[in-house]
């Protein structure tokens, strides 16, 4: 594996800010660009939100970030994945490798250090081709279309909804 995943920590603040600033143009069309947002993210970690950093194994550089958000346990055991990749690693396949590790961790039972989830969702704006390609590479199924789902860049944006359940992981033929 070229990458590992781990929880963010306060000492990531500077490299995180640099990675987000470097990647602002690439991220900004689809997600908020918040270089100074790591502390807020750390403060919000809890039962409903778990963040993973994807780290380049050779250099320790930040490849990307994945939030597992809106986690609901009980009879749902569901979470929604939101992610960004950072330059210079974007487009090298490392983000996909890291996301596979995140999905693995999400579906692993809690007693084995996982999140114990059963279903994961990815919601993507219809013309975000790179994100849709990533969802499909991970084996996510297209479930439907959700109008006016998220308030992004000043407007309520439509999203395509992709999902994966634990029974479908790992995808066959990978
Ligand atoms: C969506 C996003 C996270 C995808 O990340 P990425 O950096 O493209 O991810 P990867 O590098 O794993 O993508 C694989 C790409 O690298 C290429 N690649 C290069 N070397 C590779 C290798 N050794 N192995 C696998 N793929 C490789 C693949 O061909 C693929 O390119 P393609 O999509 O043009 O076919 C990224 O584009 C991003 O941050 N976008 C802005 C924010 C965003 O849209 N977030 C999601 C909102 S829903």
Automatic annotation (TrEMBL):
Per the record, the domain of life is: Bacteria
- Quick check: keyword Transferase in the entry? yes
- Which residues belong to any copy of the N-acetyltransferase domain? 3-167
Ordered alphabetically, the record's keywords are: Transferase
GO CC annotations, alphabetized: cytoplasm
Q: Which InterPro entries match?
A: Acyl_CoA_acyltransferase, GNAT_dom, Ribosomal_N-acetyltransferase
Pfam families with a match to the protein in the record:
Acetyltransf_3
Does the entry feature the keyword Magnesium, yes or no?
no
Q: Which residues form a coiled coil?
A: none
> Could you state a single Gene Ontology molecular function term?
protein N-terminal-serine acetyltransferase activity
Name the PANTHER family on file: FAMILY ACETYLTRANSFERASE, PUTATIVE (AFU_ORTHOLOGUE AFUA_7G00850)-RELATED, RIBOSOMAL-PROTEIN-SERINE ACETYLTRANSFERASE
Recorded protein name is Ribosomal-protein-alanine N-acetyltransferase
* Native species: Kitasatospora atroaurantiaca
């Amino acid at each position: 594996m070229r990458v590992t995943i781990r929880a963010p920590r306060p000492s990531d603040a500077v490299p995180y800010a640099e990675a987000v600033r470097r990647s602002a143009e690439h991220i900004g069309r689809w997600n908020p660009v918040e270089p100074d947002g790591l502390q807020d993210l750390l403060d919000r970690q809890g039962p409903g939100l778990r963040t993973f950093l994807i780290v380049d194994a050779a250099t320790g550089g930040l490849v990307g970030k994945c939030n597992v958000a809106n986690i609901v346990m009980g009879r749902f055991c569901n979470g929604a994945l939101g992610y960004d990749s950072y330059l210079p690693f974007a487009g090298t396949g490392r983000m996909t490798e890291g996301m596979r590790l995140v999905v693995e961790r999400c579906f692993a039972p809690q007693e084995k250090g996982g999140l114990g989830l059963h279903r994961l969702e990815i919601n993507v704006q219809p013309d975000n081709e790179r994100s849709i390609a990533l969802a499909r590479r991970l084996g996510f199924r297209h479930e439907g279309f959700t109008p006016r789902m998220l308030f992004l860049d000043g407007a309520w944006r439509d999203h395509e909804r992709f999902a994966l359940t634990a029974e479908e992981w790992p995808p066959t033929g990978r």
